[in-house]
Amino acid sequence: MGRSRQAGAFSDLLDVASKLPWKVSLGVAALSLLGFHLLAAAFAPTPTVTTVADMGGVVIHQGIHVFASIFQYVIPMAFVIGASVSYLKRSRSIELFENARSSSASDVSSLSWQQFEELIGEGFRQRGFQVTAKGGSAPDGGVDLILARGTERFLVQCKQWRAQQVPVTIVRELYGVMAAQQAAGGYVVTSGRFTQDAIAFAEGRNIELIDGGKLPAFLRQNRNASPAPVTHAILASTPACPRCNEPMVVRIAKRGANTGSEFWGCRRYPKCKATLAKT
C-alpha cells in the first residue's frame, strides 16, 4: 500500500511538471535539488543521545535529514522528466501549428480531437496568451483550455466536428461556466460550422465563435491580436460607451453583490472601465 501511494504521488508530481512550461520545470528541478541538498546537510546526523529527553529531538533531526536526502533526488528527477515531456509536447504543437498554417480547412478537420486541441492551444499562445490544457477527463463543464493574459482569464471549448453544426447548447454551456468561474470571456472553436441560434446567442456576450472558415485567419494572427474576444456583430440596441463612445459588450460581474449578473462594459477595457446597467 505504501509503495502504491508513493508511486501515485510521484505520478501526480510528473503530471504537474509536464503541464508547466519546460523551462519552469527545469528551474524548479534545479532549485529543489539545491534546497533539499542544503537541508540534508544542515540536518546531518551529528546529534547524540545523552538523555531520554534528547531522543525526540534526535529522531526529528534524523528524520528531516533522511527525507531531505531522498527528496533531493526524487523531486528534481520528477521535474526533469516533466520538463522533457513538456518540451516534446510543445515541439509537437509548434510543428502541428506550422503545418496547419499552410494547410486548408479540410486538412485541419482531419486532425484527431487531441491534435485539434493542441493546435488551438498553440494558436492562442502565438497570440500572447498563457494556455493551460484541462485534459479530456477533467470535470470542467466542457472547457478544454484556460487562457490568461494580464489579470483576465478566458475559457475555450474546442469542437472537432467535421459534419455536424455546433448547436446553441454548447455556447450556452460555456456562458454558464464563464459566469461560475468569473471569466472575462470565452471562445468556441470548431472545424465545422455554428447554427444560427448559436451565433445569435453569442452576440453581445463577449464570446467569440471561430468556425472552419475563420480558422486560417485565426492561425495567422500574432501577439498583436486583441486580448479580449470580439463579438460577431454590434446590435442596434448596443449602447455606446459614455466615456469614449465605443460600442459596449455584455460582461459578467466577478465580485460584489451582483456577482454573476450581466452588465454593459466598454469593449476597450481595461483602458476604459466605464460600465452601464443592463436592463
List the helices and strands and how they pair.
Layout: H1 2-19, H2 22-42, H3 52-101, H4 105-109, H5 113-126, E1 130-133, E2 145-149, E3 152-159, E4 165-166, H6 168-181, E5 185-190, E6 193-194, H7 196-202, E7 207-210, H8 215-220, E8 248-252, E9 262-266, E10 275-277
Parallel strand pairs: 3-5, 4-6, 5-7
Antiparallel strand pairs: 1-2, 2-3, 8-9, 9-10
Helix pairs in contact: 1-3, 2-3, 3-5, 6-7
Structure explained in plain terms:
- This protein is an alpha/beta fold and 279 residues long.
- Helices cover 48% and strands 16% of the residues.
- Helix 1 (2-19) packs across helix 3 (52-101), helix 2 (22-42) packs antiparallel against helix 3 and helix 6 runs parallel beside helix 7.
- The chain has 3 domains: 2-101, no CATH class; 113-233, Trna Endonuclease, Chain: A, domain 1 (3-Layer(aba) Sandwich); 234-279, no CATH class.
- The protein is elongated and about 80 Å long.
- Strand 2 and strand 3 form a beta hairpin.
- It has 8 helices and 10 strands.
- It has a 5-stranded mixed beta sheet with strand order 1-2-3-5-7, with helices on both faces. It has a 3-stranded antiparallel beta sheet with strand order 8-9-10, with no helix packed on it.
